[in-house]
Structure prediction request, 244 residues.
Amino acid sequence: GKVPASSILASAPSDKNLDAWRESGCRTTHCNLEVLQESTLVFLATKPHVLPGVLQEIRPAVGPHHIVVSLAAGVTLQTLQRLLPAGTKVLRLMPNLPCVVQAGAMVFARGSGAGDGEAALLKSLLSSCGLCEEVPESYINIHTGLSGSGVAYVYLFAEALAEGAVKMGMPGGLASRIAAQTLLGAAKMMLETGEHPAKLRGDVCTPGGTTIHALHQLEKGALRATVMNAVEAATNRACDVAED
Prediction:
C-alpha cells in the first residue's frame, strides 16, 4: 500500500511473467531500458546467470539518480558495481517466500555508492512485506541458509507435528491448522517478547509434565544438532553458488 500500482513498471521477456503485474494494475513492458527511463528505483529480479546480460543491456541508461536493487542469489555487490557505471547506488536484497503474505524475512546490504537515504528508503518500502534488516554482505548467504531455505525446514516440522497428531487420532486437516497456528503463535511470542527461545521453551515445561517428556524425545533424536547442520549445509551451498 506504500506505492500506487500505476507507479510500477515491470519488464519481462514473456507475457506469462507479466500477467500477475497487470492483474495488480501495474504497467508492463518487454523493454528493460524503458524501466530505467521511467523509474528511479529499479529492482533486478532475475536468475543469477541471466543478470550479467541484463546489466550489460541497461548499463548505458543507468544514471546517478537511479537506485539499483539486485535480488539475484550469489551475485556480489562487487560484481554488481563492476558491471554498472562507477558510483551507481547499488544494494543487494535477499527475501524469502513468506513475503507473498506480508510475513517475510529480508536482509539487504548496500554498495559503496549507496548512502543512508537509499537504505532507509528500501527498508521503509519493504517493511510492509515483513521483517527487513540491513546487514553486512557476508550475512546474506547465512540468511539464505537460515530463512530462505529455513521456510522449508519449518514446513517439514509442521508436517511432522500434524502427522503425530493424526497418529494419535486427530483428523489431518484439523491437525495441520493447529500445527500452523502453533508455529505462528510461538514465532509471534519470540518477536513480541524479545525473550531468548530457551527461556520461552522453559516457561512451557512443568516438572514431570508432558512437554519435558516430549522434549527428551526430540533431544534423543538430535533435533537441535540436525537443524544446525541443515543451516550450515544450506549456507555453504549458497557460498558455492556465489563462487560458481
About this structure: Residues 5-136 form a domain with the Rossmann fold fold (CATH 3.40.50.720). The two ends are 38 Å apart (CA to CA). The CA atoms of residues 15 and 107 lie 30 Å apart.
